[in-house]
Amino acid sequence: SILEINDLNPTAVVVSGDLTNAGYRQEFEEAAEYIQRIQCERVMLIPGNHDSRNVGYIHFERLFGERYSTLDFEEAVMVAVDSSEPDLDDGRVGREHYEFIHETFAMAEGKLKIFVIHHHLIPIPGTGRERNIIYDAGDVLELLADTEVDLVLSGHKHVPYSWKLENMFIVNAGTASTTRLRGNTRPCYNVIEIEEGRVRVFRKYPFKDREMIVDFDSATHQYLHYEEVQGDGRPGDRPQRRTMS
Q1: For labeling, which of 8, 9, 23, 138 is most exposed (least CB within 10 Å)?
Q2: Residue 210's beta-bridge partner residues?
Q3: Whether 84 contacts 118, CB under 8 Å
Q4: Spatial separation of the C-alpha atoms in residues 31 and 17, rounded to whole Å
Q5: Which domain, by its residues, includes 189?
Q6: Is the pLDDT of residue 117 over 90?
Q7: Distance between CA 32 and CA 85 in Å, rounded?
Q8: Residue 12: CB partners within 8 Å, gap ≥ 6?
Q9: Residue 39, CB half-sphere, CA atoms under 13 Å: how many?
Q10: What DSSP state is assigned to residue 146?
Q11: What is the pLDDT of residues 129-182, one digit of tens each?
Q12: With a threshold of 0.85, does the pTM exceed it?
């Protein structure tokens, strides 16, 4: 996947958590070696619940820097927050970070606003109990709606899926770096293209094809193209996109 990513020559690369299995130093150091192979100046990383086990967040900060970060470039502004809790699978953003999120997006008028978090903000089918949603999901969703966030990127349970909630698209990533896959889910990652007010999200299967899962106008948030995506078409696959209002 890193070879493919480098061939894309991306403006930015986002890793939405779980670089390790148990948060140990040697795991982080191995992950850092892989991350260093990515040929991109803007790499945004946040820890996942696995990374915060065994006080792993101290290794994250040593190797990758702050657990809360922003990226600002011509087309978009991105805000990434750490939703993990030490030694717990549950997550939260926390009120102490709401002002940081609000102020950053408030200064981003005219740009695509992208929020990055490890845990789910809304339920994802096929991921088990709803403990995968952060404790303060309702408050965070209200905050993101108030600041007119366009796109939310998350990970956690390795199940690719997308929702539209009012004017916000929530896209959950799969995984291309582990065989811990649920059901018929295939290894994959997302590619986001932003061009002239159009935002397209593709699901890319390593060294294979890709399929478009979201395509919308960033000004009106209307779909420019829509079709149900059925994964790889094998029995047991679930529809991969839903709209809510």
Answers
A1: 9
A2: 204
A3: yes
A4: 11
A5: 2-244
A6: yes
A7: 21
A8: 40, 42, 43, 44, 71, 73, 78
A9: 9
A10: H
A11: 656 689 999 999 999 999 999 999 998 877 888 889 989 999 998 888 766 666
A12: yes
Residue 161 β-bridge partners: 172
What are the two backbone dihedrals, phi and then psi, of residue 217, each rounded to the nearest 5 degrees?
-85, 125
- Contact by Cβ (8 Å): 152, 117: yes
CA 46-52-53 angle, to 5 degrees, is 155
221 exposure class (CB count in 10 Å sphere: 0-12, 13-18, 19+):
middle
Q: Is 217 helix (H, G, I), strand (E, B) or coil?
A: strand
In which element (H, E) is residue 191 found? strand 189-195
Q: 33-37, 150-154, 181-185 — which is least confidently predicted? A: 181-185
Give the pair of three-digit tokens for residue 145.
Answer: 């709606």
Mean of per-residue pLDDT scores for the chain: 87
How far from each other are the two terminal CA atoms of the chain, in whole angstroms? 35
Among 244, 215, 217, 208, which Cα is nearest to 229's? 215
Question: 41: number of CA atoms within 13 Å, CB side?
Answer: 4
Q: Report strand pairing: 151-154 vs 112-116.
A: parallel
Tokens of 26: 């040697």
Sort residue 227 into left (φ over 0), alpha (ψ -120 to 50) or beta.
Answer: beta
Phi-psi category of residue 160: left, alpha or beta, with phi > 0 → left and psi -120 to 50 → alpha: beta
Q: Report the number of distinct structural domains present in the chain.
A: 1
How far is 63 from 65, CA to CA, in rounded Å? 6
Cross-strand partners of 197: none
